[in-house]
Amino acid sequence: MYRWLLILLFWLPMALAAPMPPSPIKPLTLLTESYPPFNDADSAGNPTGISTHIVTLLMQKAGLSYSITVVPWVRAITLAKTQANHCVFSMSRTPEREASYQWIGPLVYNDWALFAKVPADRLDRLEQIGQRAIGSYQGDAIVAYLASRGYNVDATVKDELNPDKLLVGHIAYWATGKLIGQYILRQQGRQNQIEPILVFNRTEMYLACHRSTPEALVSRLNALIREMRQSGEIERIYLQAGYSP
């Protein structure tokens, strides 16, 4: 009996000191908005778009359980900021947002453009618009970018409302992503009435996750994104959607 007690006393400290196996990663709730052609929902309500296909492939390569849901943008960014195991895409990575999330990407690039009613003079720089009203939508990084530089921004609840506001003269310009703006105009049949006149910024768009997301997982996903870009998989997703990266 004493022999077994001695053996137990010898092995017990080592057993207690042994590292515990890592806890399984909980399913990720991935939130996005209707922001075509990067993210959207099809006629059946299923998430689609360039960024959505990139994120789906990324999750599959990482072997993670996940869901993707299309919700209003303000709700998406709030949940990813306040709820563990939540992420949002496609999020522009800005200094104002940097400390609030864990960043994976970039997934895609987004050229910010000013649109105007045809016929419109081309602009060389943003400063030429003065204090004329610029349309955008609530929660978009473009709003913070323009407002912080003293521009007169009129933000609505949905970007799709801005072409109407532009055509009736409620705003002088519409600021949005160039691809997004062109997509919305094609959907509304207004591509001959409104046109881009200035690209004023380029941003990288990411999968932004709650701050509690494990660093090891973030590093792993970033490594996979780099591999997907180097292998041409991301470029193929763009081309299948009818765009070039």
UniProtKB/TrEMBL annotation:
<protein>
    <submittedName>
        <fullName>Amino acid ABC transporter substrate-binding protein (PAAT family)</fullName>
    </submittedName>
</protein>
<feature type="signal peptide">
    <location>
        <begin position="1"/>
        <end position="17"/>
    </location>
</feature>
<keyword id="KW-0732">Signal</keyword>
<dbReference type="Pfam" id="PF00497">
    <property type="entry name" value="SBP_bac_3"/>
</dbReference>
<dbReference type="InterPro" id="IPR001638">
    <property type="entry name" value="Solute-binding_3/MltF_N"/>
</dbReference>
<feature type="domain" description="Solute-binding protein family 3/N-terminal">
    <location>
        <begin position="27"/>
        <end position="245"/>
    </location>
</feature>
